[in-house]
Amino acid sequence: MHDVIVIGGGVIGLSIARQLAGSKSVLLLDRGATGQATSHAAAGMLSPLSEADNQGPFFQLCRASLALYDQFIDELQQESGLNVAYSKEGLLSLASSEASAATLRQRYEWQRQAGFGVELLLPNQVKKMEPLVTVPIIDALFMPAERSVAPRRLLNAIRESCFARGVEIRTGVHVDAISPNTIHFAHTTMQAASIIIASGVWSGEFEGLKPRIPISPRKGQILSLAMPAGAFRRMIRWGHSYFVPRSTGELIVGATNEDVGFESAVTPAGLGRLLTDALAISSDVGSYPILETWTGLRPATPDELPILGSTAVPGVYYATGHYRNGVLLAPITASIVTDLVEGRDPSIDIRPYSPSRFS
Ligand SMILES: Cc1cc2nc3c(=O)[nH]c(=O)nc-3n(C[C@H](O)[C@H](O)[C@H](O)COP(=O)(O)OP(=O)(O)OC[C@H]3O[C@@H](n4cnc5c(N)ncnc54)[C@H](O)[C@@H]3O)c2cc1C
Fold first, then answer.
1. At 98, which helix (H) or strand (E)?
2. Can you list the alpha helix ranges (DSSP code H) found in 114-181?
């Protein structure tokens, strides 16, 4: 008998288990190995500003999570002994059309007025910062506070930290159904005072939870190139594509966003678009070896907001639906769920994310 059972060992479930282990006995279950599903596919951008058009509640949630990141990473690296390639080099958003330049200028205006240290740059300033960028630029916005992390390293570090804090992790356990304070799998039941559903895009599949939450997959195709040391320093966004350079020498090029169900193939159309955009951002990347191509299924909800809070079943909580921002939102999600399990009001208003909004 554990105090808490967490179902799902992605970045969300592992982060929750790790934080709760400070005060509770925690069992984490995954039907496969931990850290091998959507979280394994992420680019690792921690960038609340780069697509934000106002200071709505979701922006505040993302900012609150980013504010927790320095401490999260410090503790993880100490507890695991692993380097998670955390970068604080910021993000450049580039506009090559009048329409995207207008969007950048609008973002610049509200973000500057709100006190965020954003800078509107001329093309020659971009050239100085990232000399290998070749795309024609009308306007560019630099967001120095945006960050990134290598998700696969992060997942390893959180798992090691979970072990160090006494979390029990069992893999190969496919949970089928949930009833009050109880999980069911393979004709077996286990009980806990609190059960956390952190099963990503599969979180709506459990028997016993009604109504089913509306989570659906959004496929992302993504790839990595081997870049010469220091070729790019900052993240770069251009149109629907981005570069995430890593201190480990990889240049991540992402990502498609496709509504094709649970199909997860890498396709010529998907890769073709990414490579065409990558060459447009910098013709230099044409000679970089392709290291890997892969896909992941983002857990999307109808309003594109996460689902955080109690289910209708006593003792059972959702922490899912993180769509495009699960890596960014892991620390704040862990903090919110810890507050709920320990009977406190979370430090941030979670009503916009209530599971009941879909009832
Ligand atoms: C291409 C791509 C790029 C992305 N880039 C970024 C980015 O730059 N920044 C960012 O913040 N986010 C990014 N994301 C989004 C991010 O990856 C997701 O929001 C996040 O990984 C979701 O994490 P999770 O733990 O909820 O899900 P997952 O990582 O999918 O974990 C869920 C786990 O639950 C387990 N599970 C499922 N069902 C059961 C069951 N019945 N019983 C037991 N275990 C079960 C699964 O095996 C899995 O291990 C990206 C996503 C993609 C696809």
1. helix 98-113
2. 123-129, 151-164
Whole-prediction pTM value? 0.98
CATH number, domain with residue 139: 3.30.9.10
Contact yes or no for 351/306 (Cβ under 8 A): no
Q: Are residues 127 and 175 in the same domain?
A: no
Determine if ligand 1 sits within 6 Å of the CB of residue 48: no
**Is the Cβ atom of 13 under 6 angstroms away from ligand 1?**
yes
Query: Are 228 and 343 found together in one domain?
Result: no
The count of structural domains within the chain is 2
Q: How far is the CA of 203 from the centre of ligand 1 (A)?
A: 11
Please check whether residue 274 lies inside any domain of the structure. Answer: yes
**Burial degree of 99 (CB within 10 A; 0-12, 13-18, 19+):** exposed
Q: Which atom of ligand 1 is nearest to the CA of 329?
A: 11
Q: Can you name the residues that pair with 307 across neighbouring β-strands?
A: 320
Tens of pLDDT, residue by residue over 62-105, are 999 999 999 999 999 999 999 999 999 999 999 999 999 999 99
- Residue 8: CB within 6 Å of ligand 1? yes
Ligand 1 centroid, distance to 349 Cα (angstroms) = 23
